[in-house]
Specification:
alpha+beta, Heat Shock Protein 90, 2 domains, 6-stranded antiparallel beta sheet, 5-stranded mixed beta sheet
């Protein structure tokens, strides 16, 4: 017995040396498993660690990997663990000659598929303890039946007691690091949205001033001229047909210009006919006066998903596409512009591609049209990319998931952010 105890102590020291220097819990456990394998042969070994006050658990595997490995980054409730009785302290251990037939590992909702697919028959499950509390379980398995004895169980418990504090500390450190990164990313996103929203608001103010100037310089001037013509006709007491035709034409032009201004402020086609028709209407209107002419193509493979989106999301997507089309027409001198809407599973993708000379893709935090596009995308949880086309020109793509749509729709928008370009 003394010789065996001395050998075990030597193995535990080897385990200690294997743990030294590791900061990644998965790598540390795999190094540990290799040393434990010299005293307890196994085909598969994993460690389940409790998180969130024991409500959830993560899993790290050594040897071949099973679906349990997904728990390393996606914790699941302890209720679904096949070894939950040990994790909860309901039993001191589990020792079985054939886990495939042992009902203790199988119950409604149990995550027991790897036991069958990997043929994990002989199994030892012992608790991991730190500071007197159960923090997880060490699970050792072989694919042959009836391989382990009570003595193997005792050795496994010694190993578990030895590695538990170190493995648990590494996992807690990893969780703290992830939480810190998540908090930092959230702060960065919040700051980006704050700055972007401020710049978008400034852009809207500039657009309002431009619209006011257009109304003053063009529409009001046209109306003033029409009034003068009507006054002159009234004084003359008679109006010739040519004069009436000219007056009618002036009124029609004035109404057309007003409609364009109103449509730019709030796209009526979008409200009445949906996103696809609104985009197509803007696309055709944008290239109507282009010289040389610009060919356009519109393809809709969204299966109606776009028109099921909340109004705020549709408006934001329309503004992004509108800006992409305007940039292509004004700056790229393209011969063709293609717009496509595609729904694939939970993903909605809208693409605007041209074959023009291209334009500089601004950084998300820059001011200007492309910066506003990035801000609008961020505000609705969409992903925006502005990149060179496959052969020439520029390709703008907006992607948003249905889950992202639901999250964005539940957020109250800043006043006016979704209303104007």
């Amino acid at each position: 017995m003394a010789k065996i105890s001395a050998a075990l102590v030597e193995r535990l020291l080897a385990i200690s040396r294997a743990l030294a220097g590791h900061i990644d819990p998965g790598k540390a456990f795999r190094a540990t498993a290799a040393e434990i394998g010299t005293i307890i042969p196994h085909d598969h070994m994993d460690v389940a660690i409790l998180l969130h006050d024991g409500r959830q658990h993560v899993c790290y595997e050594a040897g071949f990997h099973t679906s349990w490995s997904t728990l390393a980054r996606n914790p699941l409730p302890v209720d679904v663990s096949p070894v939950r009785s040990v994790l909860r302290g309901e039993v001191p251990y589990l020792l079985t000659e054939d886990a495939l037939e042992d009902p203790r590992f199988h119950f409604d909702g149990a995550l027991d598929e790897p036991i069958y697919s990997a043929g994990l028959r002989s199994r030892i499950i012992v608790p991991l303890r730190a500071r007197g509390n159960i923090v997880g379980a060490l699970n050792i398995s072989r694919q042959m039946r009836d391989c382990y004895t009570v003595r193997d169980l005792q050795v496994a418990q010694h190993c578990a007691d030895f590695i538990a504090p170190y493995i648990y500390a590494l996992i807690q450190s990893e969780e703290a690091r992830r939480a810190m990164l998540a908090e930092s990313e959230a702060r960065n996103r919040k700051e980006l949205l704050r700055v972007g929203a401020a710049r978008l608001t400034e852009g809207m103010e500039r657009e309002r001033r431009r619209i006011a100037m257009d109304l003053h310089d063009q529409t009001l001037a046209d109306l003033s001229r029409i009034v003068r013509q009507v006054t002159a006709l009234h004084r003359q007491g008679v109006a010739r047909a040519a004069q009436l035709a000219e007056l009618e034409n002036e009124i029609v032009n004035c109404l057309t210009e007003l409609r364009h201004i109103v449509d730019d402020m709030r796209p009526g086609v979008l409200e009445l006919f949906g996103l696809r028709d609104a985009i197509e209407a803007h696309l055709n209107r944008s290239v109507s006066r282009a010289s040389p002419p610009i060919a356009v193509h519109m393809r809709d493979q969204s299966d109606g998903v776009v028109d099921m989106l909340p109004e705020r999301i549709r408006t934001a997507l329309y503004r992004i596409v509108q800006e992409a089309i305007n940039n292509a027409v004004r700056h790229a001198e393209p011969g063709r512009i293609d717009v496509s809407l595609l729904a694939a599973g939970p993903l909605l993708r809208i693409t605007v591609a041209d074959d023009g000379s291209g334009y500089r893709a601004a950084e998300p935090d820059e001011s200007g049209g492309i910066g506003h596009m990035h801000t609008r995308a961020a505000l609705i949880g969409a992903n925006l990319r502005v990149e060179p086309g496959m052969e020439s020109g520029t390709r703008v793509s907006i992607e948003i998931t249905l889950e992202g749509v639901a999250a964005a729709a539940s957020t109250t928008p800043e006043p006016g952010l979704a209303e104007h370009a």
